[in-house]
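Researcher: Here's the sequence for the chain we discussed earlier.
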Amino acid sequence: MRLLTIILLSTTALFAQGPTPQIPLADAVRIHEFYRLSSQMQDQVWPGWSKTPAPLLLVTKETEFLTHDPDPPKQFQKVGDDIYARPRQFPAGLLATFPAFGPPSVIVIGEPENTEAKSSTPWLFVVLHEHFHQLQDSQPGIFEAVNGLGLTHGDTTGMWMLNYPFPYDNTALGRSYSRLRDVLLAALQEADDKKFKSLARQYVTERKNFFAQLSPDDRKYLSFQLWKEGIARYVQIKSAEAAAAYQPTAEFQALPDYQPFNTYSAQARADTLGELKQTELAKWKRVVVYSLGAGEGLLLDRFHPSWKQDYFKNPFTLDPYFAD
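Model: Thanks. This is the structure I predict for it:
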């Protein structure tokens, strides 16, 4: 793709004119690899995903680099073929997807060492997680529908999604969550079909019992988080598994922190299930939605295989798939 040529073009032409920002070579390689990888496997993971625009803002120590944006904001300076730069404004460790410059939503992400990914191969799949948020955000009327949940309480920054006063410290709710978690783990690790179905039915019962303890707003909030963040983590796992046989470019393999894709693919699901096993509602708080929601997606692949067909028809909740 284009990003590997950016360095050469910028160095020979633009940079000679003055102190034009330069995207670090390793970052250019990673970004190129993300677009190459996603073009090869995203529709295998989620039908129609490839139609979603994927603008990306890379946040480095001093500079932000924007690419694949159809209408770059005026404060960005063109520094290469389809790449624009401005002085850093976002935190270097930011990891988020939102309409930073108006629709479409932009992936805003720091370099691997400044994010939870830590190294290049996991970073790619974190970006794919964020790219799935772009698919979610591209649904017609999605932002109006989110506001229609009535959970913002006047917050227009979006921080309510992180700071909503969910009753994480409720002791009875915590015990119910632990039962829910344990049944989900047992079901996901059960190979026998008959035993799996029994555990899946038990999970449906535990899930209903857990949600029945919540107020209407708390229920809407948790359902929204499982639908949004949990399924994005599920997609991150499925993307890693779909990429098991992917052959990265020589430039990406030459990065000092490169991890073979088949190795990462084999551990992605186990890492999330290991995380789920450790979660406690009072201790982990909102973070539980990532592994719990991902686990629900993996469960639905066996329990309700057609669930993806209606995912966007039933926004902000997975309840319909656990109705019986």
